[in-house]
Design a protein that fits this description.
About 40% of the residues lie in helices and about 25% in strands. The protein has a five-stranded antiparallel β-sheet with strand order 6-5-4-3-7. It is α+β, with helices and mostly antiparallel strands and about 325 residues long. Helix 1 packs across helix 3, helix 1 packs across helix 5 and helix 4 packs antiparallel against helix 5. It has four domains: about 60 residues, Arc Repressor Mutant, subunit A (Orthogonal Bundle), CATH 1.10.10; about 45 residues, no CATH class; about 90 residues, Roll (SH3 type barrels), CATH 2.30.30; about 80 residues, 2-Layer Sandwich (Alpha-Beta Plaits), CATH 3.30.70. It has eleven helices and eleven strands.
């Protein structure tokens, strides 16, 4: 539509020093004559577009002109831009780039050097390490299903490596730690569930729609963040100096005490779940479980199973 093109041209002019009619024509796939008419329409709307002739000529907006950004300070606009750049690789380059153009249009050209300088001081990247093109495709499909309130079906692999087919009412998508998760109401379990994106396969959006339930993903996220006190245990660990960096990456400073001999005494509350055993085994011979005894026994048993796996007959 013409109004969309006029808005897009305005955003480009606000974010670029100068752009030629030929470049605008190629970008929007219209004739040069159409671009001339569009620029004239933008001028008539009160936005001062200046035309320059010559080899380096083109269109640009007067330096001091910017769209009214009302109560947003330069620092607040910078925070928005940094946040948008942080999710660009995940939700799609084209979608976020267009939004960045619109936000950038709120900054006067005379302020852009300051914003660029501030942007180079902080980078936020929430994209999980293993994310790639496949993740983007899955996220696009799931976001469409959430927006259109359509059921999704997929094959799911649980943390215990048990496979099942699920049909879910998708509520929303959340990124946590090292991965993306789908929050939704599972028709198989007849309850709300969390599904890790990396374990979801053969995702299909069904034609059947559903009525969205009252619970919000913020409320669900808060509920799932709470741990049942009965499932928590008090861990006491002794770690060797050569894994100090890994220990301090995971545990909080107040949970770690440096011993006179250089070892680390760790006291922390953790959920008594299978993944904990794998995490502790990951430290190899550089960590010993002191308490509780049943966790130490599990680690010893699993370590012996590893030894047996590599033993020759």
């Amino acid at each position: 539509m013409k109004i969309d093109r006029l808005l897009a041209i305005t955003m480009l002019l606000l974010n670029r020093r100068r752009i030629s009619a030929k470049e605008l024509s190629e970008r929007f796939e219209v004739s040069m004559r159409t671009i001339y008419r569009d620029v004239e329409a933008i001028n008539q709307a009160g936005i001062p577009v200046v035309s320059y002739a010559g080899l380096s000529g083109g269109y640009e907006i007067m330096d001091q002109y910017r769209l009214d950004r009302q109560f947003l300070s330069l620092e607040e606009l910078q925070s928005i831009i940094i946040g948008l750049k942080g999710i660009r690789a995940t939700v799609g380059e084209q979608e976020i780039s267009g939004l960045l153009d619109k936000v950038g249009a709120l900054v006067a050209k005379s302020e852009k050097p300051t914003v660029d300088h501030l942007n180079n001081q902080l980078i936020i990247d929430i994209n999980p390490w293993r994310s790639g093109h496949q993740n983007q495709e899955q996220l696009t499909v799931l976001r469409t299903a959430v927006r259109e309130t359509k059921l999704v079906s997929f094959s799911y692999l649980s943390s215990q490596s048990e496979s099942s087919t699920r049909t879910v009412e998708p509520m929303g998508i959340v990124v946590k730690g090292f991965g993306w998760y789908l929050y939704g109401y599972c028709l198989l379990r007849e309850d709300f569930r969390v599904f890790r994106l990396s374990r979801m396969h053969e995702i299909n959006v069904l034609s059947q729609t559903f009525e969205r339930k009252q619970e919000t993903i913020e409320k669900l996220d808060h509920q799932w963040g709470k741990r049942d006190p009965s499932s928590l245990i008090q861990l006491v660990l002794i770690a060797q100096p050569n894994v100090r960096a890994q220990i301090e990456d995971y545990f909080r400073p107040e949970q770690v005490t440096l011993q006179p001999d250089g070892t680390l005494l760790v006291k922390a509350t953790q959920p008594d779940e299978p993944w904990l055993h794998g995490m502790l085994l990951g430290y190899g011979p550089n960590l010993r479980v002191v308490e509780p005894a049943h966790v130490a026994a599990v680690i010893k048993e699993k370590a012996q199973q590893i030894v047996d796996l590599y033993s020759t007959s």
